[in-house]
Amino acid sequence: MKTLLALAHAIDALSEGIGRVIAWLTLLVALLSAGNAILRYGFSYSSNAYLEAQWYLFSLIFLLGGAYALKRNAHVRIDLLYGRLSPRARAWIDLVGTVLFLIPMSLGILYLAWPWVAESVRIREVSPDAGGLPRWIIKPFLLVGFFLLALQGLSELIKKAAYLMGLCSLEEEREEVLE
């Protein structure tokens, strides 16, 4: 189990690193959005490429940020009952939800999106809008995002199982192996 926990911590480190990149992407998309607005309303200039770059960066934030949000327990959940449960009951819910929903959904999307992404890359798909950007560059990030989400789901599964087996304690940001 120590090997699995080491794997989980390596996955967590990857998600944290990507989360730091996402923070910079968020700043970049905010600056690009402001620049678009200034150009459009201040100078009556607009470009489909600028708008699509904004959409692409926004997509990257959500696709790549999913695993980071899961690692930080910052994802949206309906907390009517969950917050009132014991840590052990929450761990069971997280474990079952990960096995029954998160990992199968992530793998299903990977399976279904693969041909769509491969075709886009094969034909070097571009935007149908005048002055638009290539789409084949951004579409593979759908696969990357859901792969990272499945990987972080595996990490959470390992950590919850270790907690339920009494091998580690749950902490807010990190789980440590008990000596």
From TrEMBL:
Residues 32-160 form the Tripartite ATP-independent periplasmic transporters DctQ component domain. Pfam families: DctQ. It is found in: Cell inner membrane. It is a multi-pass membrane protein. Signal peptide: none annotated. GO terms for cellular component: plasma membrane. Keywords: Cell inner membrane, Cell membrane, Membrane, Transmembrane, Transmembrane helix, Transport. The chain crosses the membrane at residues 21-41, 53-70, 91-116, 136-155. Its main location: membrane. Belongs to the TRAP transporter small permease family. This is TRAP-type mannitol/chloroaromatic compound transport system, small permease component. It comes from Thermus oshimai JL-2.
